[in-house]
Amino acid sequence: MEITGRVTADASVQKVNNDKQVVNFSIAINDNYKPKGSTEVKEVTTYINCSYWLNTATAQWLKKGTLVQLFGRIGMNVYNNSEGMAVGTLTFHTNNIKILVFPKKAETTKASSAVKEKKSKKAQDVPF
Cα–Cα distance between 51 and 91 in angstroms, integer? Predict the structure, then answer.
């Protein structure tokens, strides 16, 4: 199965047993549709918890906002919460990760705007 979405928070590496590690992260998949007989567009966001067992170094690239294409199999976890209600979450056991777009860095944007501001001030200081 193949799914594409944006990482919702930076990935984390967790130890399982003594010798295994897993990369855990979640993605959001946005979709929209127009109900029959309506002009209003409905937006739906689905959140999926993902795990990747093959290479923990991948976690450094899975930052919030990264657009990823994942290949693997989907599953579901069902449990009773502390209030006794049944709760279910989607899980995706990832075999392959393809990074499509890295998130924009806020620091880079701020730095470039500061440089532009400095340049514009210098241009205004010219006496002629």
Answer: 8
Which positions ≥6 away from 53 have C-beta within 8 Å?
20, 22, 23, 93
96 Cα distance to chain centroid:
15
- The secondary structure element, H or E, covering residue 108 is helix 106-124
The amino acid that residue 108 corresponds to is T
- For the segment 18-32, what is each residue's pLDDT rounded down to a tens digit? 889 999 999 999 999
pLDDT exceeds cutoff 80 at 10: yes
**What's this model's pTM, rounded to 2 decimal places?**
0.73
Question: Quick one: tokens of 116?
Answer: 């532009």
pLDDT at position 117 over 90: no
Token couple for 90:
């989607």
The HSE-up count of residue 39 (CA atoms within 13 Å, CB side) is 0
